[in-house]
């Protein structure tokens, strides 16, 4: 007679619930207070103002106590992952669990499922309560059944990903505290490292623009923390997070593979695998070096000497700190050979940037290779509020292209603003940005701080005075047959007035088109400086456009006076 044994190990589940059950219970009761009970409390004091508030602002269930839900999403699954891996990291427990007549694969699956049950079961129960609540009382102005499904989907996705990632890190270390620390470090790593690299490049490369870091900026979008914050800030709509499901599966698969090769003796070791020790050590060293360079560079006005000091101190601190963590001892200062190799490689990389071996600082494309240029003088305010992804070339005229190239050559040849620590900031100090859109589809962006703009007026003013540049900067105003503004708002220092009459809007648009082209450069600049009044345009798709008004805009002022709208302005 064959003896069949069940794959389900009841005693392991009992033991697991004793050690991690408190996480699930605490999570359930906190969610119970945050959502169903909070909704009942709000319902009990129902009034028209409160109903209107929810109708106008609540887009999903993350609106209710969203800040606390955010904290729970960041902590509960990671804590559950840490406690689920405790059987690997406590020596006595590791020896006992692996002496049981249970296959490693079975043990892995049981422990993983026990932990994830602690973060999934509470949200499923709370979601059921929310559906029941919706069926029993009228809370339509707070949420709909689909909102519960959406909340359950996103919360489960975040919990599974964070838990699986924490579990994966748990396979790499034999200390629970290190597991928690490394989990948060790696989750923040895409954002942190991209910011550190951009800040450091900004210090050592003349003309570096953060807009050049658009590729680095993409790493920010891969940070799960960024998406979770967006989620709990009522920005769930449009969030693309499906790839966290396959990433979770990948984490589970890698965890299983690592577990198969992990030695039981690695319990209480900082890192469970020797092969990752140098990666960890030099990774920590690089991060601390970049952080040290940014800290001393920013605090000492980007003086290269202080930046180098920061790099050295940061590298030393990071290297020996990582060594101490690995060795679990402070007596590591004799292990300097690896640091010497690292320092040599780092110095070569750093010197290549400081002395511009790659020609970054002097690179200016040929006029024939330029399709268009986006130029911001920095003190005209024309496009100050535009997002970089929305910027378009505002110079396509060949003569103006050459003017911008001449300006760029002047800045580079005289190293204008290269020593930022020596700049005396005045009202004439501006930041100029130049983006070349090349015929091969690439972009080159440079950004410079000009200490005194008047020194470059001979290059800049002809650009700003040209009709082509003006029309390009306010293309929305000069588009042919642009008559789809559904309303405008005349904003002055004493108040504002909304105008929906299409004939009045048409007259104002026509007058503004003429006045702006006829205005002198000084008048346009003054209109931005004093901000005495603006007109806001809203088109049919709810896009908003703004334009400052100056008293020199004669035709516009005449129309405003005729329509009794000029009273809001306090113009000279």
From TrEMBL:
The lineage of its organism: Bacteria, Bacillati, Bacillota, Bacilli, Bacillales. It comes from the Bacteria. The chain crosses the membrane at residues 20-40, 61-89, 109-132, 152-175, 181-201, 241-259, 279-297, 303-326, 338-360. This is ABC transporter permease. Keywords: Membrane, Transmembrane, Transmembrane helix. The keyword Membrane applies. InterPro entries: ABC-5_transporter.
